[in-house]
Amino acid sequence: MSQYQAVKGTRDIFPEEGAQWKHVESAVHRMASLYGFSEVRTPVFEYTELFQRGIGATTDIVGKEMFTFQPDPAGRSLTLRPEMTAGVMRAALQRNLLSQAPVHKLYYISELFRKERPQAGRQRQFTQFGAELLGASSPAAVAEVVTFMMQVFETLGLSGLRLRINTLGDLEDRARYREALREYFRPYEAELDDSSRERLEKNPLRILDSKNPALREMIAGAPRLFDYVKAEGVEEFERVLRFLDDRGIGYDVDHLLVRGLDYYCHTAFEVTSEALGAQDAIGGGGRYDGLSKELGGKEMPAVGFAVGMERLLIAMEKQGLFATLNPRGPMVYVVVQQSELADHGMEVAFRLRRSGISTEIDLAGRSMKAQMREANRLRAAYALFIGQSEFETGRYGLKNLVTSEQTTLEIGAIIDILRETSVEESQRG
Ligand code: HAM
């Protein structure tokens, strides 16, 4: 064993699990293309101010969880991205995307970094898939991203999900509400825990998010943000709910849902999974109409979501959704009978691969018996035998490893059979 271990809060993914990732990723790519979202990739690090301005200086993410570094004494502070929305908005503004078309629908599968205490479902490097719809945040646009997200869960077969949704009003509504919360909690200041006391002045909405059971009753009695939202905001929210009703998407309106990032306004939502433990939030999102301006751009309505891939995979594993996932082996394993024929074997293997047939061949000079064992271990569909007489006649033995049927054919005919099988398999998915 090496003296080095993976850093706490990070993990390696090996082929077996890799197949699960691929399965989920291809569902995301497929759904994105059905909904007309195009992939965006942004740098892994950005200037620290982007996140301070974008996510909010008083949030846990910016206050405690960012991996920040200074490239050189004179350089500007940099931060590994803790989420994608701020970076995507920065990129859209920099490219002046909205001048090209009024609405842009972008999605990503990206690695993120947060200095949180690692535990099950909480890592320091993790992955999200998400979507950002820039240029619109109408009830239809909100419904579009929520439906996209929920349909990914549905196609993957995930159950036991709960979608909670709330309206946070606009900046003005929230400022009035913040004041009301401070007034409500101040008399209880001595009873609050340390983190809630700290939030009282800085960001009292976050107290509502506290998981401390001792505060539950106090929080339940707090004024509701909903009562501070102007009538038109309430009306819009109701239209979002109607859209979800029409699409048959179940939800709970949760007036305590506030989310941990400051850029949200109006609709915000979160999905939890009963298959997960303490870290049961599998995804979340909402509208962020103010982010563009906050970053120095023009007014730009926007809405998006992100889903934690690791948590999604844990939930799927718990629900047995990978049980039938059977990563396919190579189409053919080229078995070489004597070492003198190894070069010829390589030539045949390359020819097969150039013809689009997945092919494996021994690279370690192993015996024929060992090669057959390997072909079975890899679950190859066929074995192609190369011996002296095959070499001389140009006709090879082809064995179907499932039915054990064997035939002798020229390479062209073999390629035809294997290609046909490959096409059939790919059509079966
Ligand atoms: P978020 O709620 O901070 O939102 O993260 C979204 C999801 O990422 C969470 O629900 C969770 O599944 C996963 N996640 C977060 N932190 C960790 C972690 N340390 N380890 C494992 N998984 C984690 C956002 O990031 C927003 N940018 C979402 C959004 C997009 N809003 C609008 N557009």
Task: Describe the overall structure.
With 429 residues, the protein is an alpha+beta fold. 39% of the residues lie in helices and 20% in strands. It has helices at residues 15-35, 48-55, 60-64, 85-95, 139-156, 171-185, 194-202, 216-220, 231-246, 291-294, 309-318, 342-354, 368-377, 388-393, 411-428, and strands at residues 38-39, 45-47, 68-69, 78-80, 104-113, 125-134, 161-167, 252-253, 265-273, 281-287, 302-308, 332-336, 359-361, 382-386, 395-400, 406-410. An eight-stranded mixed β-sheet has the order 1-5-6-11-10-9-7-8, sandwiched between helices. It binds histidyl-adenosine monophosphate. The site of histidyl-adenosine monophosphate has 27 residues, from strand 6, strand 10, strand 11 and helix 11.
Task: Explain the layout of strands and helices.
Elements: H1 15-35, E1 38-39, E2 45-47, H2 48-55, H3 60-64, E3 68-69, E4 78-80, H4 85-95, E5 104-113, E6 125-134, H5 139-156, E7 161-167, H6 171-185, H7 194-202, H8 216-220, H9 231-246, E8 252-253, E9 265-273, E10 281-287, H10 291-294, E11 302-308, H11 309-318, E12 332-336, H12 342-354, E13 359-361, H13 368-377, E14 382-386, H14 388-393, E15 395-400, E16 406-410, H15 411-428
Parallel strand pairs: 1-5, 7-8, 12-13, 12-14
Antiparallel strand pairs: 2-4, 3-4, 5-6, 6-11, 7-9, 9-10, 10-11, 14-15, 15-16
Helix pairs in contact: 1-5, 5-9
Keywords, separated by commas or semicolons:
alpha+beta, BirA Bifunctional Protein, domain 2, Rossmann fold, five-stranded mixed beta sheet, 15 helices, 16 strands, 39% helix
